[in-house]
Amino acid sequence: MNQIVPPPVIADLQPKSRRVNKRHHVAAAGDWLRRHQRAIRWLQWHVVVIYAVLLIVPVLVPLPVDSARIWNNVSLFARFVFWGIWWPGVLISMLLFGRLWCGIMCPEGALSEMASRHGRGRAIPRWIRWPGWPFTAFVLTTVYGQMVSVYQYPGPVLIVLGGSTLAAILVGYLYGRNHRVWCRYLCPVNGVFGLLAKLAPLHYQVDRQQWEHRPPHIGRVTRINCAPMVPLRTMESASPCHMCGRCAGFRDSIELSARPPGSEIIAVSARTATVWDSLLIVVGLMGVTVGAFLWASSPWFIAAKQWAAGRLVGLGVFWPLEQDLPWWLLTNYPGNKDVMSLLDGTVLIGYIGMITAVMTMAVGMPFAVAARILGPSWHGQRFHHLVHSLLPLAACGIILGLSAQSVTLLRGDGFPLNWVDDARIAALACSSAWSLYLTWRIAGRYRSGVRRAVATGFVLAGIVAGVLPWIMLFFVW
Length: 477
Ligand code: SF4
Hints:
Oligomer: single chain
Helix content: 55-70%
Structural class: mainly alpha
Number of strands: 4
Number of domains: 2
Strand order of the largest sheet: 1-2
Bound molecules: iron/sulfur cluster
Strand content: under 5%
């Protein structure tokens, strides 16, 4: 009897073959990284040298005078490179390639791993494993950076970045063997990098079925050292992975793969989102970071300072207006007419605290209401999952805030950069739309119909609240 074979559907075949090709190319890139670990280490040492030069040389030369320019003053040049190119570039790379920067180029990670290779190799203590470090370290570093004007002066840069590097080496020397304990648990930007990597279109994917059927001695690679100690068999998030490529091909089960940008947030974050993630996104990125970028341009900050000064003078208390502190505690550069009094410092911390409180309420409340609408009762995990949809906007804000440094420097040097405002509007619009799209998709996992639409509407209010400070900073003040 003749068997009826359905004709092949060309539309099914062609995209599949293209997908296979694309998949093959992406996986080959992961294999290439695994095979070129020596070249990666060579690259890392070059980045270490550049980093050290940019960190140390500006401290050894006098502060720039008014006529100094990026191209004729090493201090201004280093400032431009660090805050205008390096950090925004690293953040953008997280969105494009995951934490490739951490695994391939980060000088701190390389030094910490090297120290760990030759160090004491002690067990990692419980205090280091505390999951609140990414949030706490990020907030403390951000606020301290503002108190000492880290974006303006080389001394504070040396303390903040150099201090972090020394701590990374010390932790590497004391704990773990051939691992990056610092990067995994303590690095102040570990949490932010891990969150942004969730949006990336690349990740290392584990085929669990294949894993179970392949003994470890079979595969393109049989021994690996995953420096950030990712549990490979159960890895489902790009957050902890440094994209170093060492595990590509392990048990023939792990390979670099492409995925739709943000897909991890829609699916995987339902299980993996935590309260610390929500704190870092809502309080840290949408609150503290916004306050830190806003205060220097804010008329409210000036008004608060004048009000507090008037009250103190009225009470006959003058010392908070006159007392300053060493430059490593509070900005103190009399030669540049840039000295913060104790009152300035107090108002600065109060201002960042107030903005953080307002933004946390303005952004967090609509998300809380939306999370409640999407279920029969309140469920914290649903809220944390929804909050992950804010990541595109949070990432856009921090990139725009950092790049504002380079825009200011370049404009001061005669580059008009007339297109910048349009680019800022486009970036805010696109990231807000992306956040809203992620919300819609996440909401669809819990409810359909009216509840889904109403919940998305509430989140839209939170997104608008998150955009407003940037509008004020770039277009109103
Ligand atoms: S899981 Fe570990 S070894 Fe594999 S790419 Fe990520 S960091 Fe490297």
